[in-house]
Amino acid sequence: MNDFTHFDGQGRAHMVDVGEKAETHRSATAGGRIAMQAETLRLIRDGAAKKGDVLGVARLAGIMAAKRTGDLIPLCHPIALTRVTVDFEFDEAHHAIACRATAETVGRTGVEMEALTAASTALLTIYDMCKAVDRGMVIEQVRLLEKLGGKSGHWRAGQA
């Protein structure tokens, strides 16, 4: 039996029909990190990057991307989001910035893709704004951290 839901009985890709599903509060959190040279991290932390407020722009880009996920990911439902947050944490010891994005809705389908899109886009924006001084930055560990709501209930990374 095929458990992938984006294929019909003939194996063709299709958008899943969520019309019969109940509307519930749904939330998902995704995260990732970008590693860089120590000097690049200092420029971002001190607000001294030539392009301006790197994390402010990255936060806005992540929120905007979450709202457009249905336009970016084929077969992904357009969702009316009720809340999106994008937060950053400096990891001085490893010259990195961690990103954590949460998307929420009251709807018939989950927001995992919206959270993942927000985190990925925020990290890509940091790269874009700093690539002139550090082309060797590495975006890594982008993954779903937690999801709540819907038929499958609560899931957290690292739990069985």
From TrEMBL:
Domain Molybdopterin cofactor biosynthesis C (MoaC): 15-150
Pathway this chain belongs to: Cofactor biosynthesis; molybdopterin biosynthesis
Alphabetized InterPro entries for the sequence: MoaC (IPR023045), MoaC_bact/euk (IPR047594), MoaC_sf (IPR036522), MoCo_biosynth_MoaA/MoaC (IPR050105), Mopterin_CF_biosynth-C_dom (IPR002820)
Catalytic residues as annotated in Swiss-Prot or TrEMBL: D128
Origin superkingdom: Bacteria
Catalyzed reactions: (8S)-3',8-cyclo-7,8-dihydroguanosine 5'-triphosphate = cyclic pyranopterin phosphate + diphosphate
Binding site for substrate: L75, C76, H77, M113, E114
Keyword Coiled coil part of the UniProt annotation: no
A Pfam family: MoaC
Family matches, as CDD domains: MoaC_PE
Claim: Signal is one of the keywords in the record: no
Keywords linked to the UniProt accession: Lyase, Molybdenum cofactor biosynthesis
Class of enzymatic activity (EC top level): lyase
Gene Ontology molecular function: cyclic pyranopterin monophosphate synthase activity
Record EC number: 4.6.1.17
One of the GO biological process terms: Mo-molybdopterin cofactor biosynthetic process
Subunit record text: Homohexamer; trimer of dimers.
Protein task: Catalyzes the conversion of (8S)-3',8-cyclo-7,8-dihydroguanosine 5'-triphosphate to cyclic pyranopterin monophosphate (cPMP).
HAMAP family to which the protein is assigned, alphabetical: MoaC_B
Family under the similarity heading: Belongs to the MoaC family.
The name this protein goes by in its record: Cyclic pyranopterin monophosphate synthase
Organism: Sulfuritortus calidifontis
